[in-house]
Amino acid sequence: MKLRHILLSALLICSLSAAQSYGHLGDTMLMFQFPDHLVPELDGDLSDWDIVPDYYWIRAENMYNQFGAPVDLSDFNCRIAWGYNLSENRAYMAIWGYDDMWHGTEHFSVLVDWDHSAPQYRAFGEGDDYEARWINARAQKYDTAIPGVNPTYGHMQVSGKRWVAEPPWTEWGARFVMGAADTFEPAEAEIEVAFVPFNDVHPDGPEESIQHTFREGDIVGIEVNRGDKDEDPHSYDDAYWSCFGGINAWRDADQFGDYLLAPIEDGLPDAPTAVQTNSWGHIKSSF
């Protein structure tokens, strides 16, 4: 019943805000709210995400291939979830990924529009000065390699806004569970990324930029794409996967999907009491 209430609330919010924001695609997904004591550690170990219910995850079998080929989970597989924490005002992303031929040119493109207001956000064709100021400003495109390569390399750096892709604004952790990068062999990896949200990213740094503030019940825009290149590092091999299927989402934020910032789920582990914390401290100090 609680999930039903959340989804109904999301539809209501969408209808109320339709005149004020750009419409996004597909069914509204949920963004898990991490209580302060359960915020994930950014170490590439997704066990922190075991508390996140299944309906928060997007899986490869439900993703869209923009080149039309059917899903083959023995070729590419993944699952993706999003969360947030109000105290830290950060968004969290978790990805488990598998590829039968993993190499360094493959990455997840992570596209975000935190205030759900940006139309076009890249490739304006208005000249270098305009592009330098406004590319990835009102929405952002992060290219996320897994792992071994800085996950936020690429367009954010090229646009002159590299700072937003670096700590403390973007932090990450990743590991290979099986295999390794650049081997063209089967590999399985896990990655966690934390983002400080911005409504306007300025090339001169955070002082000139406008941070976004998360609020429970708000809707944000997100898309995640992943090209599967296999033998040819310069070809997508008829596979370009996306969570919502928006065409040209690399440029147009109205091609993202919607995520509702959900309330805290019932039944989560309680925060440790002061007595429990002190007792554990005594135990550890005795080792």
Task: Provide a quick synopsis of the model.
With 287 residues, this protein is an alpha+beta fold. Helices cover 14% and strands 31% of the residues. 36% of the residues are buried.
Sketch the topology as an H/E string, one letter per element. HEEEEEEHEHEEEEEEEH
- Please tell me the CATH architecture by its name: Sandwich
Give the % helix: 10-25%
- Shape from CA axes? globular
- Quick one: CATH class? Mainly Beta
The gyration radius over C-alpha positions equals: 19 Å
Total domains, how many?
A: 1
Number of helices: 4
Distance between the termini: 47 Å
- Class computed from helices, strands and strand pairing: alpha+beta
Note the main sheet: 12 strands, mixed
Mean pLDDT score: 82
Please state roughly what percent of the residues sit in beta strands, choosing from under 5%, 5-15%, 15-25%, 25-35%, 35-45% or over 45%. Answer: 25-35%
Please name the CATH topology: Immunoglobulin-like
Uncertain regions spanning at least 5 consecutive residues = 148-158, 275-287
How many E strands?
14
Kindly describe this structure.
There is one protein chain. Residues 148-158 and 275-287 have low confidence and may be disordered. A hairpin with a 4-residue loop joins strand 4 and strand 5. The protein has 287 residues and is an alpha+beta fold. It contains four helices and 14 strands. Helix content is 14%, strand content 31%. The protein has one domain: Sandwich (Immunoglobulin-like), CATH 2.60.40.1190. The strands form two sheets. Strands 1, 2, 3, 4, 5, 6, 7, 8, 9, 12, 13 and 14 form a twelve-stranded mixed β-sheet that branches. It has a two-stranded antiparallel ribbon with strand order 10-11. The protein has helices at residues 2-17, 128-134, 155-158, 274-285, and strands at 25-33, 58-59, 64-65, 76-85, 90-102, 108-113, 140-144, 170-178, 185-195, 198-200, 210-211, 219-227, 240-242, 257-261.
